[in-house]
């Protein structure tokens, strides 16, 4: 057993601790995600950014394993931040967590290097599955097509 940083809990040696950076310009979203993820023994939220520029700086200093990134934020949006982070830290997994589901938004995130794309109405279990996916796993897409179908997590890339 080992201690999880900051909260006094222990994590099994078999269960690796996943370091998360939250990036969203809405304080209630950041705090809500932090509270939800705090209940998970294998997840440690190491930081929270309110802008794209802050996400880049915190990624440099905190070295998270996974970033949950909103797309539209001040001072450098999510897609711009993804491109910068991806150029500097190829191994970090960046999961877009946003309300925007247009083809243009999805394409821009994917072209910037996003590892996955989830909408903010994604069920908790799917969000946790995306966070815990091994680095080599296929990307996670939680979108709904006009016919009502969805590729879900670990599904194929979104249709353009």
Please characterize this protein's 3D structure:
- The chain is an alpha/beta fold and 160 residues long.
- It has a single domain, classed as Response regulator (Rossmann fold).
- It is 33% helix and 21% strand.
- The strands form 2 sheets. It has a 6-stranded parallel beta sheet with strand order 4-3-5-6-7-8, with helices on both faces. It has a two-stranded antiparallel sheet with strand order 1-2.
- Helix 2 packs parallel to helix 3 and helix 3 runs parallel beside helix 4.
- The longest helix has 12 residues.
- It is globular, with a radius of gyration of 15 Å.
- The N terminus and C terminus are likely disordered.
Summarize the structure.
By secondary structure, this protein is α/β, with parallel strands linked by helices. The protein has helices spanning 27-38, 52-62, 78-88, 103-112, 124-132, and strands at residues 2-3, 10-11, 18-23, 43-49, 66-69, 93-98, 116-119, 140-142.
